Amino acid sequence: MQTGLINALPFCIISSAIAISSVKSLSKSNKEFIIYESSLSDIFGVLIFNFLLLNDTISFSSFSVFIFQIVLMVLIAFVASLSLSFMLGRIEHHIKYAPVVILTILIYAVSEIYHLPALIFIMIFGMFAANLGEIKRSDWMKKFRPEVLEKEVSKLRELNTEGTFLIRSLFFLMFGFLIETKEVLNEKTLPWAIVIVSLILFFRIIQLMLSKLPIMPLLFIAPRGLITILLFISIPQEKQLPFVDKSLIIQVILISSLVMMTGLIFTRKSAIINKDSTDSK
Fold first, then answer.
1. Can you give the C-alpha Rg of the chain in angstroms?
2. For residue 152, what are the contacts with CB-CB under 8 A and spacing of at least 6?
């Protein structure tokens, strides 16, 4: 069961790098759903994967330690977010973003060394920075000079957007270099890849119906990508299943991306047709 879950989890995680950059033309509500869904999928998927990988036996004690680590990381993330925000608002030097980014990486690296869920810190720091408009109303927040901090956070967001674009571009460039034709057209794993993507879409329909969300076009926006590859190469040799190989990973990523691309194209075309018919009436 544990080995099966470890091999299955990489296929369960939506690639936020692909999904978020592909939904700019959607409505605000659909766009927000994809952003939150893919980001939380990355974070919780990696947390569960590491939990299964680091624990040889799944027991009550292992769950207790896991929950304790999450609570501890939330507290550390809260204190670190306040400290980094305070630094961002107080540094007068023209170089102010590099120290904040370096300290963020340092906290993440130290958390990883002690096997703490470091992605919790990244999520909380991002939520804190993105919701200054809501929390600056409180009296204690005024000590952090929110009017100055909000201006600096907007610049940090631009820097983060460009850095994300650079990393995503490098990933797809390397991914393209590493793809071989024989792996893409591997007949042994292709049926498995089609079945996996079909199951992803099937369970996604159920999820969207239960959540009372529009099936179109959200159904198609579930691509696999960078996190899937990173988790796959993190699986130890002794815990790898024979048929879960590089060919299967590449085929699932490509098929899910093609499904998303096709779905968005036809959704956009239908939206344009409906708009034209409405205008003519």
1. 21
2. 88, 89, 96
Provide the H-helix boundaries in 131-220. 132-135, 146-178, 181-184, 190-210, 215-218
Q: Give 201's pLDDT tier (boundaries 50, 70, 90).
A: very high
Residues 88 and 151: beta-carbon distance below 8 Å: no
Q: Is the pLDDT of residue 152 over 70?
A: no
Q: What are phi and psi of 130, to 5 degrees?
A: -80, -15
Task: For residue 123, count other CB atoms closer than 10 A to its CB.
Answer: 19
Residues 189, 254 contacting (CB under 8 angstroms): no
Sorted by sequence, the CB contacts under 8 Å of residue 235 that are 6+ apart come out as: 6, 7, 10, 53
**pLDDT, tens only, 33-75:** 888 888 888 888 888 898 888 887 778 888 888 888 888 888 8
Q: Tell me how far CA of residue 20 lies from CA of 9, 67, 77, 91, 271, in angstroms.
A: 20, 29, 24, 32, 20
Q: Which of 4, 21, 10 is nearest to 169 (CA)?
A: 21
Spell out the residues 6+ positions from residue 125 whose beta carbon is closer than 8 angstroms to its own.
77, 80, 81, 84, 104
Full-model pTM? 0.77
State residue 196's pLDDT score.
93
